[in-house]
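Researcher: Please translate sequence to structure tokens.
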Amino acid sequence: MNPVSNIWNHPKTSAAGLLIAIVTVAGVLSQQGISLGKAGSGSVVTLVSGLAAALLGLLARDPADTSSSSGSTAKLGAWALIALLLPLPFLGGCSGASVAQDIVNWTPTLQSAVDTVDSTAALLAPADAPVFAAATAGFNAASKLLVSQAEAYLANPSAGVLAQMQSQVVTLQQQVNAAVLQAVKIVDPASQKHALAAIQEVGTVVSAILSLVQSVSSKTQVAQMATHSTIKLAATWPYLYESQSAALVAAHYGRPLGWARTQVAQVEVAEIQAGF
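Model: Translation complete:
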């Protein structure tokens, strides 16, 4: 296809591709220590990367229903994922104590989301319920352990408890990613929609806690966490709805939905660069 006509016919997809390329190149430059000069309290590279991520979030849309979606719309919508995903106020210099409190603040939502998963099987077609139950079987135990670790970290933010959380949050993240890939195998459209919505609610909170744990971890520790993330976020993007994650994030922090959408895009980029 002629590149010029392709850009003309698919302007949003082309723009998203350009923004993705900008963020990717900026990430490589940052890793190599190339800043291209100062911009406020940061560098030109980080400024450009942040602006590109924000614009990407504004461009992104949810994947349409399978009955009416096009490939380009679904791929573009995937860039505004969740589940992924949470706001970045903790990356602006917050203390370890405030991060610990934020992690604990997410845990009631995590427990509620897991309870929703447990009750979702009753909404599925009889043939689909066992598949869903098997895919999400580990959520209860893994989430309860993570909640107890978060509470212990708030009481005593020690290196030992942090190491436990680093391991456990990645374990739960991998269970969520695997469950998403199992849920998309459900053939019945209504069952699949219920299953993915329930799993994504858990995934949004897990991604929030993952990013918070990452913010108080060293680069070496984050790299070690990423090595255990064998099912990457990119594998689940096409099946998730950005609006669901953004709504949950906005409600949790009491902020506008547009703000949450932008943070979703920013965190998504950060997790890609970290190797998750």
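Researcher: Any highlights?
Model: Residues 60-93 have pLDDT under 50 and may be disordered.
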